[in-house]
User: Which sequence fits this backbone?
């Protein structure tokens, strides 16, 4: 009985997760430009990690990165988006990071205050938030941003609906249900509705 | 007498802030009442603490390959740490761990 329950939850999880990431077998082949871009990214990563620039290490790097590119070339750059689109999203996301860092710092100071305060002024509550994010990457970015910023932890994600545990009910409702600032920023970045 | 350069002082400040948040995370792990709220303390404070300490190490190290590696480490921690907390909390929720409400007894 318990076993069947686990199977059922796994099954439903799988159904949910297919929502945003559909790659049919026809357009699974990435374009040459994308393969070269993936190879370059992997090669830069290889150089940083190895730190050697002699012939042997460069040769080994080219072989390894080539194999990885052939096997999983469509994992870093998605095949249903053009290279320029992916680059634009990446740059917009990098520009969003400083703001996120400041908000993480504020959220941490808030948690530190509540933990160190003698009376511990916390009021936990589980909230549900509906969003229009349909892709995997925006959902992951939103879930991670929510875990790090306004005193909340993402508990569950079903399609566009996020279940969230908030440390302090009022401020979390204010941030996530009324102001919705993170949702709006991420919607701008990824081009999907908040 | 040994005098610290401004960059080293900045690095020390960053490491100090990181250590403070790590300690807060540990204190929260003991003081907070239930699993979910403890996940708040360990998840948020440890991520920022580790990040600040790594930034301190980068400032101390200067422009070398090691600081690029440390930067990559910080980036991966910022991606993987919230994901790990989410995985823990998700399992607790689906297994029916009831969250603590204001006014309840400590668990």
Assistant:
């Amino acid at each position: 009985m318990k076993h069947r329950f686990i199977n059922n939850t796994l099954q439903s999880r799988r159904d949910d997760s297919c929502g945003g990431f559909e790659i049919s077998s026809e357009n699974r082949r990435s374009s040459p430009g994308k393969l070269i871009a993936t190879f370059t990214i992997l090669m830069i990563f290889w150089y940083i990690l190895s730190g050697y620039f002699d012939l042997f290490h460069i040769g080994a790097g080219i072989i390894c990165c080539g194999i990885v590119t052939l096997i999983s070339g469509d994992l870093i750059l998605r095949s249903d988006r053009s290279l320029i689109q992916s680059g634009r999203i990446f740059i917009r996301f990098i520009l969003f990071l400083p703001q996120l860092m400041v908000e993480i710092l504020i959220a941490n100071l808030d948690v530190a205050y509540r933990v160190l305060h003698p009376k511990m002024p916390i009021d936990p509550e589980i909230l549900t938030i509906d969003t229009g994010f349909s892709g995997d990457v925006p959902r992951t970015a939103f879930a991670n941003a929510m875990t790090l910023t306004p005193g909340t932890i993402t508990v569950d994600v079903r399609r566009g609906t996020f279940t969230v545990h908030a440390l302090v009910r009022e401020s979390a409702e204010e941030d996530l249900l009324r102001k919705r600032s993170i949702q709006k920023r991420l919607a701008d970045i990824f081009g999907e509705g908040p | 007498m040994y005098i610290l350069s401004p960059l080293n002082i900045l690095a020390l400040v960053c490491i100090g802030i990181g250590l403070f948040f790590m300690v807060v995370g540990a204190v929260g792990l003991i003081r907070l009442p239930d699993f979910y709220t403890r996940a708040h303390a360990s998840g948020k404070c440890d991520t920022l603490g580790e990040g600040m300490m790594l930034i301190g190490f980068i400032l101390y190290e200067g422009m070398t390959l090691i600081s690029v590696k440390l930067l990559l480490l910080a980036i991966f921690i910022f991606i993987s740490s919230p994901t790990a907390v989410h995985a823990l909390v998700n399992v607790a929720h689906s297994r029916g761990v009831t969250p603590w409400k204001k006014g309840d007894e400590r668990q």
